[in-house]
Amino acid sequence: MEKIISIKNLNYTYPEAKQEAIKNVSLDIYKNEWISIVGKNGSGKSTLTKLIDGLIEASSGTIEVDGQIINEENIWEARTKIGIIFQNPDHQFVGATVEDDVAFGLENQGMPKEQMVKEVDRALKLVKMSDFKRRDPQSLSGGQKQRVAIAGVLATKPQIVIMDESTSMLDPEGRQTVLNLIQDLRKKQDLTIISITHDISETELSQRIVVLNDGQIVQDDKPVNIYNMGTHLSKYGLEEPFSSELMSTLRDSIKLPEGYLNEEELMEQLWKLRLNM
Ligand SMILES: Nc1ncnc2c1ncn2[C@@H]1O[C@H](COP(=O)(O)OP(=O)(O)OP(=O)(O)O)[C@@H](O)[C@H]1O
What we know:
The protein is built from 9 helices and 10 strands. The protein is globular and about 65 Å long. The protein starts with a strand and ends with a helix. It has a 6-stranded mixed β-sheet, sandwiched between helices. Strands 2-1-4-5 form a 4-stranded antiparallel β-sheet, covered by helices on one side. α3 (98-108) packs parallel to α5 (142-155) and α4 packs across α5. By secondary structure, the chain is α/β, with parallel strands linked by helices. The structure holds adenosine-5'-triphosphate. Adenosine-5'-triphosphate is lined by residues 14, 17, 21, 39, 41-47, 198. Keywords: ATP-binding, Cell membrane, Membrane, Nucleotide-binding, Translocase, Transport. InterPro entries: AAA+_ATPase, ABC_transporter-like_ATP-bd, ABC_transporter-like_CS, ABC_transpr_CbiO/EcfA_su, ECF_ABC_transporter_ATP-bd, EcfA_1, P-loop_NTPase. Its main location: membrane.
C-alpha cells in the first residue's frame, strides 16, 4: 500500500496554552483508504486537521503529503491536494446559484470560463445534483447542500478529502446518502477520505479508526475491533454503535456472521434467519 500522508512525532501547542493539543502523534494514511479520526470534545481532532491542511504550523515533527514534507515553501501546493467539507453546509456557500458556488474554487485558480463550465458539470454529475445547478443553494435540504459542497471540493480535483463533522447536522437519511456517496466517490475517483467525527456511527464505512484522547493516538484498528471495545469506549467519550451492541447480545442465542453488520444489514440477516426457521 502506498502512503499519501505520513505524520511523524507531531507536537503542537497553541500560543499561550499550557498544555500540548497534539502530543507525539505518528500516523500513516494510505492512498484510497477511508480513515476515521474519532475522539471526544477537545481530544485534538480539529487541531490535527488544521496541521494536516497547513493552517497551523507544528511545534515539532513532520507531515509528509504525497511524498513531500510540508514546509512554508510548498504548503500551497500541498493544500491543492486536499479538500475539506465542513460541518455546517450553510457556512460554505458563497454563490447565488449551485453552479456559481461549485465554480468558486476554480475561479480562484483562474481557470478559463469554458473549462470551468465543464468541470462544474462534471462535479455536479458526480454528486447527482446536475438538475439543481440553477437553484439557489439556500433552497436545498441539508443533505443536498452537503452534496453541493462536496461537488465544490471535487471540482478542484483533490487527492484527499477531509470530512470535518460533515454529516453531524444532517437528518439520518441525508447523512446516509452523503456517507454512501463518499464511499462511491472514494472507489471511483480513487480518493483518500479522512473523516473527523465524535460520533462513532459515522465511521461504519471507513476501513480504519484512529481514536484520539488528550492529543494522543490511543487506538488504531479496524472498526469491528474498535466497536468490540464496547463499554470501554466510554473512557474516550464514545459509544458502541447500537447494532454492534445488539449483535453481541444476539450471539449468545443465534449464529451471526463474523464481523460487523450495520443496522440495515443486521435486520436483513435476522429476516433471513427467521425465514429459514
Ligand atoms: N485556539 C486555541 N487556543 C488555545 N487552545 C486551543 C485552541 N483551540 C483548541 N484548543 C485546545 O486544544 C485542545 C484540542 O482541541 P481541538 O479543538 O483540536 O479538539 P477537538 O477534538 O477537535 O474538539 P471538538 O470536537 O470540540 O472540536 C483542547 O484542549 C482545546 O481546548
